[in-house]
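One-letter codes give the sequence; the integers encode the fold. A sample entry reads:
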Amino acid sequence: MPHVHDEVRITDSVSVASRHYLSAEHLWSALHAARRSRELEAEVAGPGFDPEHRSYVISALLSAVAFLEAVVNEVFEDAVDRNDRVKPLGLRCTELMAETWATSERSLGTLERYQLALLMADKARFGKGENPYQDASSVIGIRNSLTHFKPRWHQHGEVEKLEKSLSGKFDLNPYLAETGNPWFPGKVLSAGCAEWAVNSCRLLAQGWSDRLGLPRYFDESVAEWKSP
């Protein structure tokens, strides 16, 4: 049965309430932006800055993390409402998630929410030093550096912690790879980075859903829509 990402509820007082799930749309946006950044890189004629290419890479990164946040938030919200979508979790897990969401929503980081849900469901948590958790954490680190960006002086040859952790995971920006620009934000923001980010976040969400026994609603929706 096709997945409907909008839910409509009619109450006893004949009022109508609706809820929209956004995770699949964030995923589609991330996939689309990553694809467009790759297409633009295929046209590279020489070194220089391409604002269109940069915008697609940044969009892919932001949308990938927004997708990751939306997936876990939607499940916690469904637990609060005892939605049929989370029936596979069982009553005890659903109650624990609902109680935690009501008291600790703002204090929990995105990946903490993923781990906590697994703990409540008595499922194996992700290894923090292993993938997909480690890569997803790095994607969030890049997103945070973009959204809370502070210009700094860079010493040539200086290697940052994030650069070390991501070395060799994807090709650098061909527009700027051979220039004197700093690794971040210049060289790292490539189509390879965009594709890696989307894939890393998607793998974590898929693995998490599978461990909990929940359908991959986000994948179902994306498969029904036009190709990103």
